[in-house]
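Example record

The entry below shows one chain as it appears in the dataset: sequence first, then structure tokens.
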Amino acid sequence: MSEKETKKRLKQTMALLKIKIENLKPHTDESERMNNMYNRMLIEKAIVKNELDELGKARPNIIQKIANILKPKNKKLISDYFN
């Protein structure tokens, strides 16, 4: 699959998950099963968003790779993907 097709597929998945999450949100208090489904969809959306973000980045050259090894890592929390 080409990068363009992959981006299109990921964007469609994001849109579908967004709709499902919005429809499920009012029902999360009704049962634990609904709440678990809602949480799984949120996590899946965060994973898809991360994949989409990674696709958009340019691949680093050798100097950037060395600099990335030497500099401290930026820690990301899962809550960063929900903004």
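Notes for this example: The helical segments are 3-24, 32-56, 62-70. The chain has three helices and no strands.
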